[in-house]
Amino acid sequence: MSIHSTAIIEEGVQLGAGCQVHAGAIIKKHSVLGEGVVVHPFAVIGGDPQYLKFDPATVTGVHIGAGTVIREHVTVNRSIHAGQATTVGARCFLMANAHVGHDCALADDVVLANNVMLAGHVSVGSFTFVGGGAGLHQFVRIGEGVMVGGLARITRDVAPFLMVAERDEVPGFNLVGLKRRGFGREAVKEIKAAYSAVFAGGDPRPPRPGAFWSFLRRGSAVSPVRLRGGYPTMAPRLAFTCGDPAGVGPEIIVAWLAANRAEAKEVAVIGPAPWLAALDTVAEKIPVGLEEFAATPGQPDGEGSLVAWAAMERAAAGCKSGEFSGVVTGPVSKAALAKIGYGFPGQTEFFAARWGGEPVMAFCGGKLRVVLATWHVPLHEVARLLGPHRLHRTVAAANTLARADGIMVPRIGVCGLNPHAGEGGLLGYEEKDLLNPSLEHLRAEFPGLTLCQPGDTLFARALRGEFDVVVALYHDQGLAPLKAVDFDEAVNVTLGLPFVRTSPDHGTAFRIAGQGQASPRSFANAVVVARRLIKFRSGA
Predict the structure, then answer these.
(1) Spatial CA neighbour of 321 closest among 518, 474, 168
(2) Has 392 been annotated as catalytic?
(3) Could you tell me the CA-to-CA distances from 492 to 23, 32, 219, 310, 329 in Å, in that order?
(4) Residue 99 and which of 16, 477, 512, 532 are 20 to 30 A apart at CA?
């Protein structure tokens, strides 16, 4: 055994025979190091977890297996749970500046390259290599024999023997790693067949090898990553985000799950872990935010806003990776999000930033279909924004919204900007000189399109059946009549993006949150509309 004079070994540490602890290294109390472990300069083993609610007096530890090498500046945090330990297996190699978060479990023969970051509760299977700078999200499970590419961002489980890179992208199997471990051609064929059986609906019998099957059978808080090409994943699903957990979002999701138990298997619910744990549902549960955060209904706070934001991020990433076919979002507080640095006026703009495309805000699900040309902008900016390009994408979105309902040639009524649609120029020039010429040009593509109509009568005409969808030029012009007629049924739809996103057309309703008074009808309609749009896009 060799311990440098500047190393710090705290009380209760157990060092196995032949351990080496180099200059400036710190081994915190209750850490256990097996035989032959080497700790290089300035590594810290057993430090307090980076968890705001952790009580340092809690007795927890770190266990390092025999023969493991820990290079410079590595940090391995102890568990947050009394009597438990973060574990690193035997013969592992943790390169410089790697971080292993609390309650992680690394099996034997794992390599973490320089600057790898493991969040809390990550598990890594044996003979896995994690490339430099990679980051693994909390609760992610990495199977045996996986190769994680450098700088990868892993937010979902990775089944054994795969390669994973970028953001949850799997180009294929870790054939080099399998060959190095002595796997022959027949064994590799069995592994591929196992993956195909599980993810492509093949042979329902338990596939071999056992390591692969047992990994998939254990279940997880997240879904396995998608293999690019050759082996499609399970059927596309919808993601439900909780919204602000102090609002009515969680309870309207609970109501939907209770009323649609069979359909819940095609849904993933994203929200705070304690709330998810209490759900009686077959839906997948994906926790985000601080692990023990529990919201108080009607009392929003910064932690709840972080959960709402994290849920959006997780849903957006899941759509891009192929895990989800669309998102139904719970209501959020724009003001509360702004206080924590959320840089978007609403959820519409967030998903546009994450997915690309040009968003159009629309509403349906009740008696009216309404599409907005502008929404979260000051009124004095509206006229300046109503150029030909914006009008075209708004009318195209209106056409899509109606066609998804089976209307092949939609009748689209367009509100004027000024009273009486400008009255031929007497009450404003925008209709005569700017809007109507653009709309006239668009009528060749959309034959059911009108020129600007007086906004004070157009909605009544739509309710009488004269129009299938109304285009409003600014936020309140469209939403005031819509909410007067369809407040409990209307659905907010984001069109113009690569993926489907819908939401109930109401806010967080903090005043009644947790009292069982919130109507779930708008959320239920949002699910129906999302599925309808997905089906329309697929051409089914």
Answers:
(1) 168
(2) no
(3) 60, 55, 33, 20, 10
(4) 16
User: Could you confirm whether 103 is annotated as catalytic?
Assistant: yes
Catalytic residue among 61, 120, 132, 289: 120
Residue 234 pLDDT exceeds 50: no
Catalytic residue among 22, 40, 102, 121: 102
Say how far apart CA 363 and CA 342 lie, in whole Å. Answer: 24
- Condensed to tens digits (0 to 9), the pLDDT of residues 451-460 reads 999 999 999 9
C-alpha span between 368 and 463 (Å, rounded)? 7
CA dist 370 and 366 (Å) reads: 10
The answer to whether 475 touches 348, Cβ cutoff 8 Å, is no
The predicted pLDDT at position 178 comes to 87
Residue-wise pLDDT for 166-202, tens only, equals 888 887 788 888 888 888 888 887 777 766 655 544 4
Query: What is the per-residue pLDDT across 77-132, written as a single tens digit (0 to 9) for each?
Result: 999 999 999 999 999 999 999 999 999 999 999 999 999 999 999 999 999 999 99
Q: Of 34, 73, 103, 448, which residue is the catalytic one? A: 103
229 is catalytic: no
Tell me the backbone φ, ψ of residue 471, rounded to 5 degrees: -100, 115
Are the beta carbons of 474 and 374 closer than 8 angstroms?
Answer: yes
Exposed, middle or buried, 383 (CB in 10 Å: 0-12/13-18/19+)? middle
As a whole number of angstroms, the distance between CA 70 and CA 97 comes to 10
